[in-house]
Fold these 3 entries.
Entry 1:
Amino acid sequence: MAVTVDIKALLEAGVHFGHKTSRWHPKMAPYIHSKRQESHIIDLVKTVEGLEVALPFITKTVASGKQVLFVGTKKQAKDIVKAAAEKVNQPFVTERWIGGMLTNVATMNTQMKKLRDLETRMDSGDLEKRYSKLEVQRFQEEIDELNGKYGGIKTLSGKLGAVIVLDVLTDANAVKEAKTLGVPVVAVVDTNADPSVIDYVIPGNDDAIKGLQLLLDYFVAAVAEGAGSVKKADVEEEK
């Protein structure tokens, strides 16, 4: 059953509030409804249309066995993005985007292996047996630092199916790397950003937490539906 989008909920969450008219990007013109007190108002009909195309794509992507990367490094969005991704067991980036996270596979694999090895040795007690308390503390600090940088993508494996971005200006590098690899980008695009570089444009306010949470809820529902299809297929194969 496809995820249903409620335009009234979008309105109540303030998804329609764009930026000041002086900061607009001309390519967002098709997605703008009107102007109000020197600010643009986003056409929520276009937002619904964008979601009704993007959500089935996300579901289909996850159902095919591919992962979806959630990206939101803006301060006010970090916690809700992490919570959304963890809810559906998908990778995420909520701290600074480190150059090459997607494109420099060799370096990323090295860092991931280092992190996993240190965590395994810490959990097994191997480090505690071999080193002093001070040295073990330093290992833990290194683990914490690596987790801060790469913890959200530890589970990233195989070909990435899509990247979901909540602010295309703040996380322009994530969009750029995804485009370099040919990975489709689903993104919330406010009136001050260029929608032409995004595969699945969701015109909307990229600042209001209530609006971002609602959009994340839709993305999570789409992922969950796709994951449910995978589990159903696995059960049928076992019969």
Entry 2:
Amino acid sequence: MQKKYIALFLVLAVIISCFTACSANSTDAEITTAVSTTAKQKDNTTFKLSYTQADSLDPFKAQTQNNQVLASLVFESLFDIDENYETVTNIATGYAFTDKTTLRVDINPKLKFSDGSSIDGEDVAYSVNAAKKSPAYGSSLGCIDYASAQGNSVTISLNYANPYAVNLLTFPIASVNDDRDGYPIGSGRYVYKNDNGKVVLKATEENGFDPYITTITLVNIAAADSIDNAVNIGNISFAFRDMSSDTSKRLSCAKKAVAMNNLVFLGVNSYSGITSDPQIRQAISLALDRTVLAESAYSGYADAAVSIFHPSFKSAGDVTLFSDSADTAMAKQAANQSGIDGKDLSLSVLVDTNENKIACANLIKTQLEAAGFSIKIEKESVKEYRRRISKGEFDLYVGEIKLADDMCLYPFFDKSGGARYGINLKKLSCDDIYSQYLSGEAELGKFVLAFNDEMPYIPLLYKKGMICYSKALKGDMQGYYGNFFSNIDSWNFTS
């Protein structure tokens, strides 16, 4: 009998253990299911970007906007510039001016390139000097003379005093070495990889980067019109357009405007004709409705230039100088004070074939005529337009220049500046006062007053660019110029 009870006890024990095991396994299954439903659904096929196969992927050799945009995924910079043109440390931990023309930048010793090698002063100095010679960054780095490495810091020598020189240090920092496949090495969120003979971007696992999009397919599309069409129909997922033409009307995808430092201005011939009179130049500025120019000629993809500097540039303080609307009465008064007979207020406006500039010129004509001027628009091919500007064969011209992030105005005030045409530097004082301001010898207000009195050129608006992307792409699009993919880790294609 005792054996029967023992046997029955063992059977019950086995049955209970089975139920217990099943219960435990069931709980584990539920936990596993819960974890799997909260894990990110990785995507290695959907997200596609255009690139130019015939162009270099080296950020210092790339000549196309396509490949230059890719660089912000693969490389990090010493500093980032936020949407207010303030510097944010990135690879750098800080900086200091050791004198007016020498800048020391300290490098985070814990950071590494994607191949595991340390980022040191030699890599940074190499990148600074290479960026100076590059198609993408060279034109903005005229302030920088050269860089030299000193351990985990780099010394940057400047060609002139510039309190905002650190704003220029936003170009890629690359290793002096390439990887074994010949791709340049950065410390960014993605790396170039060879995938069965095709180049792709693979997400890194450094610094806690955990995106949905783990692989980015690169599609060889070089022509601007083809890029617009590709993002419209979904052949690529994302593109940046600099609005060199009014592409906004051709794009049916999702869009976001991004601020750029591209100044559209009215160049003025101060050597001859009625525009050699500063009061006439002031009258022209007063007659312009900059808000209308931004909203109509540039379809809203522009900000009125109410300051000498970009309106988002807060480092110089509030330097509002121009009204965003026309003051026709004051414009007429300024013209009368010049002593020039109203019958002689005839001017031509030179413009090239760019559709936005032509629209801008037509609006300028209407606004100036309301102030008593007689205006003729002269449209020329790009080649002839440039020739006439270089020879001073104009009264007014609609121009555009991409200013550097330090807001340097030497393109207008230097004898070799790209926007110097028509500006009679021998009769100006504001250019010298600007240099004094940069070196700390004059207050900003003194320069602003001199500029207003002399009006060497007339700022109109700051053009915006556009991020365009597939409507299927989910996530808050926070990208901005120079950091187009700022929150790419949250982008996905989940329904």
Entry 3:
Amino acid sequence: MLDDIYNTKIIELASDIVSLGRLDNPDTSATKVSRLCGSKVTVDIKIKDNVVIDFAHDVKACALGQASSSIMAKNIIGSSKEELYEVSETMVNMLKNNGPVPEGKWSELAFLQPVKDYKSRHSSTMLTFEAVNEAMNNIK
């Protein structure tokens, strides 16, 4: 059963995380922790004219949290706040309501679709999105 969610692509994504670390002077930061498993993601973001221009993250998570963080890091630069909220909503809908998978530059998130059948894994999968949303909400 768990082979469905811990497939080769998820392991590849988890092992290829870019932008690890912290930014020196971020415009906004946020940390989210999963109460279920203890996974933790901290994001630092620089934003200009409503578009992300720099990003770093500290990821202490399981393979699913690492995979979603990896995809976030590969795609966040150049994304608007609205786009980031939208992809987060799409992920929640995909996991909780069997909704469609994200498309376009976020299409790799489709590899996380099997997680929908494992509710206890939703939290770690969504950490990076929750951290980014909180960081974006902190921007006035």
